[in-house]
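Standup notes, protein team

Yesterday: finished cleaning the Sediminibacterium ginsengisoli set.
Today: Ribonuclease HII structure.
Blockers: none.

Input for Ribonuclease HII:
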Amino acid sequence: MLPAFYQTEFTEAGCDEAGRGCYAGPVFAAAVILPRDFRHPLLNDSKQLKAEQRNELRLVIEASAIAWAVASVDNDEIDRINILKASYKAMHLSLDQLQVQPELLLIDGNRFSAYKKIPHHCIVKGDGKFASIAAASILAKTHRDEYMQGLHISFPHYSWDKNKGYGTKAHRDAIEIHGLCRYHRKSFNIQAMQLDLYDDGNES
């Protein structure tokens, strides 16, 4: 099982994002503070787990965590500020929502934009090394997948129920046929023969 904590002196929150490399949809991030005695044999990097395992762990994490929060930054803002800054912003927004303020942040990856005056450690592949980061990766991933499943209802031809906005062959082929819709990230320079925006007539 993954070690629960980086250290034991300060209250720490694990942070991770999901959807950074997608062609469409928001980037999601989560922050999680786990209790000292939290253990679960399945807990690992969300990418190493099956969807059923992630969904099972989501329920356990949300019920057991001292505090947790999920936030997102939409594709329009991603296009305005770039995906890296949007990922940081989503993490900051999730930290804003925590009911308990952490004293140390564990960030998955090698870079981060400092949050308030709280010290942080960037840990490459941290979602496979520490339980709190793994928990954050699972919440970010499952909440984002759920969101993309909802978008799929209005835009079924992109197969977002399966690819969740990632650039799979089916998604790329659909873009060639249907062009880009309002949820695609235009700043990603997605190549399409037809670039007219697809509108389902339900703008809100």
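Follow-up from PR in the comments: The domain at 12-151 is CATH 3.30.420.10 (Nucleotidyltransferase; domain 5).
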